[in-house]
Design brief:
mainly alpha; about 0% strand; rod-shaped
Length: about 70
């Protein structure tokens, strides 16, 4: 009877370990996806900022040319 309880206890504890490892793997995958999405968003924002700076520079140039006439 006692060996059966030991085997059942070991099986139960090992199942907890598998569940914990699975949860950790899922959390890591979600975090990786969040990081990739953040990098994508950052790249898009940098591109938008670059475009806005170009437009500002062009408008300043045009204003300078208009003022010089």
């Amino acid at each position: 009877m006692r060996p059966i309880l030991v085997v059942l206890a070991i099986a139960a504890l090992s199942a907890c370990g598998v569940e914990t490892a699975s949860t950790a793997a899922t959390a890591a995958a979600v975090k990786k996806q969040e990081i990739e999405q953040g990098k994508k968003t950052m790249g898009e924002m940098q591109q938008n900022i670059g475009q806005a700076m170009e437009q500002t520079q062009q408008r300043a140039q045009q204003a300078g040319e208009t003022a010089g006439k």
